[in-house]
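Anyone up for a design puzzle?
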């Protein structure tokens, strides 16, 4: 993904200039430096100290996100971290504290927040159209081949990646689910590996309970084709469904809670009006996806434009991921926020069982669905 970000900064985002890049593998760093015509480094500290950069985009294996981000803030740089923010919530706390101390801009790689239908859904929820949340649903279903997992020694290992579908494919839509429905108070979850030859999970599911007593369901997998992403937020006064880019919204004529006790008829129902979501057309020539994310990050630095995906909001997704894994491994419900020490202890146990892969066929190909 780092190569994708380099191309976006170099060729697509007018507010940003690519001035240097870093890869721990010398041959890759040299090749990318030649490709984009900028100095290359194999040590991020050397790049941070070079005076060549004002801001960094971190697109590394997950465990490196926290130490590299903290170091960047300590060197007075602005930071955009690819998803997930980190592997463990305790590391997220360190990043957020480092950002606070530095007073620099901090963003997280949740480019789906920029989609017009997502923005429209968020506006409706902020306006209170749905009322109090009564139920939520998230299905984030993907497909990945065994070749995908064999493409790198770090992938789908506890020591190298820190999780499977939850920490790799699911974060984008967990983020939107939380952005719309809020943070649950408790998680009952299960993870399992049903198809692939990997250490970590390729399937996860959970029941969640919200502070007001509402419930929700989450399902994530890399075993399903065709894939789909579905979010439902059902409120006391309406319902919202975001399904593979299509937004549907219904507004109830009466509050469910109120009508339930005021209605006199045995079979009375509440009329639901399908309303047109306020999807604003994107201005001609405006950027989409990850280029829009990088542009917003750059404009926040240059002009103090509000960040659409503030970095500290990336912690909520990690809370859900950690809680679900902890619930599955310990076979118990997990309250939020996650107990930092308890999850760190579990992760230490899981990493201790991690073994080097016996079958690796390395590939470094950026997801074509992201390079547009």
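Challenge accepted. My sequence:
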């Amino acid at each position: 993904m780092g190569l994708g970000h380099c191309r976006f900064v170099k060729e697509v985002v007018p507010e940003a200039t690519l001035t240097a890049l870093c890869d721990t593998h010398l041959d890759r760093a040299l090749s990318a430096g030649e490709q984009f015509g900028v100095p290359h480094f194999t040590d991020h500290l050397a790049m941070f100290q070079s005076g060549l950069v004002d801001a960094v985009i971190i697109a590394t294996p997950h465990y490196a996100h926290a130490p590299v981000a903290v170091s960047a803030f300590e060197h007075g740089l602005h930071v955009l971290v690819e998803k997930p923010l980190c592997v463990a919530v305790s590391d997220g706390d360190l990043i957020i504290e480092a950002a606070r101390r530095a007073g620099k801009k901090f963003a997280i790689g949740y480019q789906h927040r920029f989609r017009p239908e997502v923005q429209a859904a968020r506006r409706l929820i902020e306006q209170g159209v749905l009322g109090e949340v009564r139920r939520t649903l998230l299905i984030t279903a993907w497909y990945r081949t065994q070749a995908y997992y064999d493409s790198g020694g770090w992938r789908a290992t506890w020591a190298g990646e820190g999780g499977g579908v939850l920490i790799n494919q699911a974060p984008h839509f967990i983020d939107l689910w939380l952005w719309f429905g809020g943070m649950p108070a408790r998680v009952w979850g299960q993870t399992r590996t049903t198809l692939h030859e990997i250490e970590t999970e390729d399937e996860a599911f959970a029941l969640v309970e919200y502070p007001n007593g509402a419930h929700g369901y989450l399902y994530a997998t890399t075993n399903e084709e065709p894939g789909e992403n579905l979010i439902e937020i059902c409120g006391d006064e309406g319902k919202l469904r975001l399904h593979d880019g299509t937004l549907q919204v219904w507004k109830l004529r009466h509050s469910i809670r109120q009508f339930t006790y005021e209605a006199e008829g045995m079979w009375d129902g509440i009329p639901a009006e399908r309303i047109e979501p306020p999807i604003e057309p994107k201005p001609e020539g405006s950027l989409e996806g990850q280029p829009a994310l990088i542009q917003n990050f750059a404009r926040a630095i240059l002009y103090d434009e509000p960040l659409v995906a503030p970095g500290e909001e990336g912690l909520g997704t990690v809370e859900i991921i950690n809680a679900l894994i902890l619930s599955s491994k310990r076979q118990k419900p997990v309250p939020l926020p996650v107990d930092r020490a308890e999850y760190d202890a579990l992760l230490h146990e899981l990493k201790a069982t991690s073994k080097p892969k016996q079958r690796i066929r390395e590939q470094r190909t950026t997801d074509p669905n992201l390079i547009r």
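A detail worth pointing out: The chain has two domains: 2-112+290-310, 116-282+315-353.
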